[in-house]
Amino acid sequence: MSLDADAVKKIAYLARLKIDEADVPGYVNNLSNILDLVEQMNAVDTEGVVPMSHPMDAVQRLREDVVTETNQREAFQAIAPKTEDGLYLVPQVIE
Q: Phi, psi (5° rounding) for residue 9?
């Protein structure tokens, strides 16, 4: 499938893209090549080909979601400049 300059301009308008008039022939060529490649891929017979979810059929190892550390809030807040009721107090930056 090949496109003409008017089709490229219409596509650019619909996509709200501004392209220079001097660049239109390059876009015509590139978009036509892309559409030709899509046509070639559509022509391939894929009947009986099982889709793959991953090219390597890899499986991630998962671990249990368990707590591995103890709560150290008091230790961390002891070195903070200001805290109140378990919260960190910071200076106001927005008026």
A: -65, -40
Q: What is the pLDDT along the chain (95 residues), one digit of tens a residue?
A: 789 999 999 999 999 999 999 999 999 999 999 999 999 999 999 999 888 777 676 777 888 999 999 999 999 999 999 999 999 999 999 88
At residue 31, what is the residue type? Answer: L
What is the rounded (10 degree) CA torsion for 16, 20, 26, 30?
A: -10
CATH number at residue 35: 1.10.20
Name the residue range of residue 38's domain: 5-43
If DSSP codes are grouped into helix, strand and coil, which group holds residue 87?
Answer: strand
Sequence letter at residue 58? A
pTM for this entry? 0.50
